[in-house]
Amino acid sequence: MNILITGGTTFISKYTAEYFVRKENDVTVLNRGSRKQIDGVNHICCDRMNTGSALNGKHFDVILDITAYTEDHVRALLDSGVTFDNYIFISSSAVYPETNVQPFCEDQQIGFNSVWSDYGMNKVRAEQYLLSRVPDAYILRPPYFYGIYDNLYREAFVFDCAIADRDFFIPQNGEMKLQFFNAADLCRFMEIILRERPVQHIFNVGNKDLVTVREWVEMCYKAVGKNVRFVSVDKSVPQRDYFCFYDYGYSLDVSKQNELMPDTIPLSEGLREEYEWYRNNTDSVYYRKPYMQFIDENILCQEN
């Protein structure tokens, strides 16, 4: 296939570009050239909001739009002069209001979520605008992504705690549920969509099984080869000051995805792979948060 991927240099878009190059597709990436490109791609160097003539007259079998966060992002690409046969947009589970019945399913109404706020509403508007222009586009709504090339300080934070043999400060009893999806499984599912052309065009994607915060941390420590000692933190301490997820548990119904792709990478296996990558690429995690500093200065100091 002749594929256009927006982004191509960080986390999901980088993994996707690499995945489809390995499958011997003709892959073009669209980005500003601020980071190293992966081997084997064609590079269009420009901002997606100002492509000029870079895409005018170009045709692709599919656009994999991974970096659109707003309606304007989608509009700019569609108005760039590019043509295509298929379009897959990576949206977000943040489009579901937290007041919806869980697990969230694809036919529920989307709208404002007070936890995700503008991020979620921007994805809602991006979806709506895309469908107004490309009614047969595919839209995927993932939970939390993880895997190699992850540049967010989530698994990396727990890995760092394990490497330093630190106690792990967990919100309350650690029973909040989390749902994940590996970058590799996302690519597999997009490949299935392009091959099968399912009638349904909006899919929740993610692992079928949820895990508690406690289970997730235990798996991260085990990936490093360590056992974890937990310290429970009272609800009065703002969770996002010392922990890498909001105090918001939710679940997606991924039964429609599972009809097309019944198996996903076991979380423990995916975390081991991510740690093996991270231990040699610690500088690739750009957005480090001072969780440990907050714990040392605000929780441990009070305890002592």
In short:
The protein is of the alpha/beta class and 304 residues long.
Folded structure, characterized:
This protein has 304 residues and is of the alpha/beta class. The chain folds into 2 domains: 168 residues, NAD(P)-binding Rossmann-like Domain (Rossmann fold, 3-Layer(aba) Sandwich), CATH 3.40.50; 103 residues, UDP-galactose 4-epimerase, domain 1 (Alpha-Beta Complex). The chain is built from 10 helices and 13 strands. The strands form 4 sheets. Strands 3-2-1-4-5-6-11 form a 7-stranded parallel sheet. The chain has a two-stranded parallel ribbon with strand order 7-10. Strands 8-13 form a two-stranded parallel sheet. The longest helix has 17 residues. It starts with a strand and ends with a helix. The mean pLDDT is 96.
Let me know the largest β-sheet. Answer: 7 strands, parallel
Unreliable parts: none
Radius of gyration: 20 Å
Report the total helices.
10
Q: What percent strand?
A: 15-25%
Overall pLDDT? 96
CATH class of the largest domain: Alpha Beta
Order of helices and strands: EHEEEHEHEEHEEEHEEHEHHHH
Global outline: globular
Number of domains: 2
Q: Give me the count of strands.
A: 13
Helix content bin = 25-40%
Strand order of the largest sheet: 3-2-1-4-5-6-11
Oligomer: single chain
How do the strands and helices of this protein lay out in sequence?
Blueprint: E1 2-6, H1 11-22, E2 26-31, E3 42-45, E4 59-65, H2 71-78, E5 83-90, H3 117-133, E6 138-141, E7 144-146, H4 155-163, E8 168-171, E9 177-178, E10 180-182, H5 183-196, E11 202-204, E12 211-212, H6 213-224, E13 230-233, H7 239-242, H8 255-260, H9 267-278, H10 291-303
Parallel strand pairs: 1-2, 1-4, 2-3, 4-5, 5-6, 6-11, 7-10, 8-13
Antiparallel strand pairs: 9-12
